[in-house]
Amino acid sequence: MAGATSPSQPCIFCQIARGSTSTPLLHADDKVVAFQDIKPSAFRHYLVIPVEHIPTVRDLQRRNEDYALVSHMLNVGQTLLRRDAPQSNQYRFGFHQPPLNSVHHLHLHCLALPFIPR
Ligand SMILES: [Zn+2]
Ligand SMILES: [Zn+2]
C-alpha cells in the first residue's frame, strides 16, 4: 500500500503513526499505534490504526497476515480500555463500513461507555 498517499496530501494517521505529530500515543509497536479520538463520544474513546497505510476494511485481504493484524488491533484496544476504564463493563469496537469513512486510513474505534451526551 506504500504510495497510496502523495506527499502533497499527507495522511494524518500516517503522520501520527510515524510519531511526527504532537498526538500522544497510548500504544506503539511495529504493527499498530493507538491514540485518543480527537472528538471522543464516550468516557474513553481510542483509535487503533495499522502503521501501514490501509485505506478501508475492504482493502484487507483474506490472508492470515490481515487476520492477525485485525485481532492484534482488537487486543490492543481491549488492553487499553481495561487499563483506563476498568469500571466500565461496556466496551464497543468497530470499523467504519465504506463509504462512511471519516479518515481514509483504517482505524478501529474503541469505546468504553457511557457515551458522552451531545
Ligand atoms: Zn495513512
Ligand atoms: Zn472514524
From TrEMBL:
<dbReference type="InterPro" id="IPR036265">
    <property type="entry name" value="HIT-like_sf"/>
</dbReference>
<dbReference type="InterPro" id="IPR011146">
    <property type="entry name" value="HIT-like"/>
</dbReference>
<dbReference type="InterPro" id="IPR001310">
    <property type="entry name" value="Histidine_triad_HIT"/>
</dbReference>
<feature type="short sequence motif" description="Histidine triad motif">
    <location>
        <begin position="105"/>
        <end position="109"/>
    </location>
</feature>
<feature type="domain" description="HIT">
    <location>
        <begin position="12"/>
        <end position="118"/>
    </location>
</feature>
<feature type="active site" description="Tele-AMP-histidine intermediate">
    <location>
        <position position="109"/>
    </location>
</feature>
<dbReference type="Pfam" id="PF11969">
    <property type="entry name" value="DcpS_C"/>
</dbReference>
<keyword id="KW-0547">Nucleotide-binding</keyword>
<protein>
    <submittedName>
        <fullName>Histidine triad nucleotide-binding 4 isoform 2</fullName>
    </submittedName>
</protein>
<dbReference type="GO" id="GO:0047627">
    <property type="term" value="F:adenylylsulfatase activity"/>
</dbReference>
<keyword id="KW-0378">Hydrolase</keyword>
<dbReference type="GO" id="GO:0000166">
    <property type="term" value="F:nucleotide binding"/>
</dbReference>
